[in-house]
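RECORD TYPE: inverse folding
INPUT: structure tokens
STRUCTURE:
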């Protein structure tokens, strides 16, 4: 028997750290972000498909020029949906292959779980959460985006309060200890 636990949370909430806690507890974890990175690799299927849809987004070394893609998304309100139309079926195929091999409690680590409707395919959903100030501090400390970039990302994500309201479990990631305790409780309940 397989039990699918969807794990989600907005940017900077501690989802990746929490997913590792589930791995450490013996759960198989499917990581949507990692799959997307593999798909975008020069030997993956996404670069050729993206280049066909958006000529010039592939660098000479075969990598997707993420800055060029970001600029296209900023300039064209339909671009992100078109990119998702290309990438989401590839991601879904990878997830299906993972689930065919899975047993017991498995975690589907998906940042846009609610936004893509994948929560409906899960038996239970866990949302990682911290207060907005901690979230903002964590993201901006990475040094990879501006406040404007962060606000744009947050505008495309389901608000944290809505995610928490829809979740079966809320994992407070303000401390590692509280997150570990909640992960242990969830694993014990579902296995």
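DESIGNED SEQUENCE:
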């Amino acid at each position: 028997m397989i039990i699918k636990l969807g794990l989600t949370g907005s940017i900077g909430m501690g989802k990746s750290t929490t997913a590792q806690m589930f791995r450490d507890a013996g759960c198989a974890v499917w990581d949507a972000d990692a799959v997307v990175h593999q798909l975008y690799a020069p030997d993956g299927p996404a670069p050729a498909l993206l280049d066909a849809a958006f000529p010039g987004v592939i660098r000479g070394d075969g990598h997707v020029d993420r800055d060029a893609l970001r600029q296209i998304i900023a300039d064209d309100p339909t671009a992100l949906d078109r990119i998702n139309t290309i990438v989401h079926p590839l991601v879904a195929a990878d997830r299906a292959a993972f689930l065919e091999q899975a047993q017991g409690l498995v975690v589907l680590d998906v940042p846009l779980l609610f936004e893509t409707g994948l929560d409906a395919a899960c038996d239970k959903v866990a949302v990682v959460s911290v207060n907005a100030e901690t979230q903002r501090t964590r993201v901006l400390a990475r040094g990879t985006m501006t406040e404007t970039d962060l606000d744009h990302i947050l505008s495309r994500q389901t608000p944290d309060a809505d995610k928490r309201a829809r979740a079966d479990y809320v994992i407070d990631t303000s401390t590692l200890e509280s997150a570990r305790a909640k992960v242990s409780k969830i694993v014990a309940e579902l296995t």
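NOTES: The beta strands are 2-8, 28-31, 104-109, 124-129, 169-172.
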